[in-house]
Amino acid sequence: MVGLFISLEEQLAKVRRWNAARGWGFSEEEFSAVNVTPTGEQSLDRVELLVPISRDTANPTDLCWVFDELSAIAAAELSASRSSSVTMEPAHLRRHPLGVEYSRGIHRVTLRLRAYHDPENGRTLAWVYEQASSAGQKLVGVEGLSAAGHFTEWVKAWNGSSVPCPDLPGLQYRFDSSDGSEAAWCRAPSLRWWPESGEFDVSAYGVRHRFYSFGAPEVLRES
């Protein structure tokens, strides 16, 4: 769809600005190494994205740091307040096995933003995980927050029909940190935009809840 996405070159300029404002410490050498040559048109089915990973996400604490940083940036880019029921601590938030683990750096990825969106029949994330696992697919986690920071017009277009809101199925969430069972990790973060209140909302819903207005974006390529 026209106007929802910005170029890789424009994204790199944003990452430079964020890096300076938030003290991530990316060097000019790291910026110069980023390939901003496009390989096709930007669309909901194939969008090229720069994901600034300021800390190694293999470390649970640093994964939560990156999640917090990128969600704060998305809200700021939207001139919005951030509403969140997600506790950004390792006891509550972790990477799903189908999510991508990133080393520190500026990563270029390709996403399918409207993957697993069925506005007529709905779908559960439990079903998405079965399908993605069988197909050997990777699912979006912190990449979705970076996309929201870069593509503010995409966020404002979330209507649940032609442009789905995104789940972040590459991550897992649990409310009760005292429950040590695997079954407790039964939720995944999701994003919404509330234009009336000017809120960028980060929530977490059960993987067996049937959603009609959400997609489960897929990582098509990572670097």
Describe this structure in words.
With 223 residues, the protein is an alpha+beta fold. It has a domain at 54-100 and 113-217. It is built from six helices and eleven strands. The protein has helices at residues 8-22, 28-32, 60-77, 125-135, 142-150, 152-156, and strands at residues 47-53, 81-84, 93-95, 105-112, 138-139, 165-166, 171-173, 187-194, 199-206, 214-215, 218-221. Strands 1-4-11-5 form a four-stranded antiparallel sheet. Helix 3 (60-77) packs parallel to helix 5 (142-150). The longest helix is centred in the first third of the chain and has 18 residues, at 60-77. The two termini are 25 Å apart. The model has no long low-confidence stretch (mean pLDDT 96).
Parts with pLDDT < 50 across at least 5 consecutive residues: none
Run of helices and strands: HHEHEEEHEHHEEEEEE
**Span between termini:** 25 Å
Any idea what the radius of gyration is? 16 Å
Helix content: 25-40%
Class derived from helix and strand content: alpha+beta
Can you tag this structure with a few keywords?
alpha+beta; single chain; 3-stranded mixed beta sheet
Give a brief description.
By secondary structure, the chain is of the alpha+beta class. The chain has six helices and eleven strands.
